[in-house]
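Subject: two folds for Thursday's group meeting

Dear M.,

Sorry for the delay on this. The cluster queue was jammed most of the week, so I only got both jobs back this morning. I'm pasting them in the order they finished. Each block is the input sequence followed by the predicted structure tokens. Could you check whether the formatting survives your parser before we put anything on slides? The first protein is the one we discussed after the seminar.
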Amino acid sequence: EEIAEYTQDSSIITKLNLKNTPYLVFISSVEKRKNVHRLIQAFVSIANETSASLVIVGNKTGAFREIYKELNGVPRQIKDRVIFTGYASEFDKYTLLKHARALVNPTLYEGFGLPVLEAFALGCPVVASVTGALAEISGNATLKIKNPYSVSEISSALREILRNSPLRS
């Protein structure tokens, strides 16, 4: 019902300075089992190949500080393209999904995976690991990360979704 009632609002896009910037979005709590640290490592490894940003939407849990350390030593011009929003309203999440190049969910374990379904409903491509319920939810509709422990596999998936417009379509 919320997605059906959603009316596009670009204020979050403007606030995060993403108006003319391609970006990938991760939506979940920022915790270790969500594999955010490997996602950041993967993004940093391809950052020089793209102008895209990585937007991480979710409450900053106790693991946030440890995960944020992945950006230590990363050049400022790349570090500035990893954006942590903290909590976002449902409509802000929908807006971010609507304009994203893809939702990326490299989780190590997922009980359900509502952001994947929200992305589908909003026409947003999805890159996801095939762990837990995500394999059942996504079927063949996602670019799959078979080994979410592999930073290089996550990097390859990010590179592919950013470069391949027909795949995103």
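Second protein, same layout:
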Amino acid sequence: KIIINNPILFDASCSGIQHLSALTRELDTAIQTNLVSLPNSEDIPNDFYNYACNIVQKEIDIYDNLNISKIKLNRKLIKKSVMTIPYNITQYGVIQQMIDNFTEVYILNKKVYQVSADLTKDNNCIYLSKSEVRELGILVYNCLIDNIPSLRDLSKYLDDIISILLKLNLPVVWITPAGLKISLSTIEYEKTRTRSSLIPYGKPVTISIPTKKLNVKKIKSSFMPNLIHSLDASNIHLLCNNLKDSNIPLYTIHDCFATTPNKMILVENKVKTSLIEIYFKDRNYL
């Protein structure tokens, strides 16, 4: 009966993977990210990060490198890699994320990476060489990609379309579910060194001059992050439209939503309604 004005928050369960599972209709991933709940299932949300962690751990347990097989993953170590899979993270990117979780030390003037005791099965620190960290990163990357097959297929499909557009030197354009037109048209720049004739002893200056050629590498690497963020933004736009006559306080940060406690159930339902509008109302957005 008491009105509490301090906001409470809730956020999506790995929203990037949610969007991809909705786009591709991959049921297992949709269940693990709480996009779909099975009939008669317990009312306990799934944790996709723990799910992914368990998948990778099974591969580590049978890996033929003794050092790597001693590693005991946790949710925190794997979370960043899982979050960035929808954004086309590369093998190199996952390797760098693994390195960030370890401590760089030198043994007999040789650089190695210390894995803390809480990340090992016997609670003793182990030391990985650079090549072993690389092996671990590739193992994690392959596990995550192979267990979301529709993500691999979707990425190839979109990459092929983008390749055709870029060969024609055309920007990548899409319209979000909220009606916003986005044009991804990053251009290449040519660098020119020049010197001012007014300052004879001045240092030369490098100037970047825009060309008419699209930057293929940057457009390809940035498309998926931009697409996913545009879908998150669309969910918020549709949510605001659904709430416009209700006088409910709301603020959002990416895939996180906040309101006062007495209004949270309504906001949560409207968030779900907005997602349904994007993917399931008339036809699949893809």
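Two things I noticed about the second structure. The mean pLDDT is 89. The chain is about 45% helix and 20% strand.

Cheers,
T.
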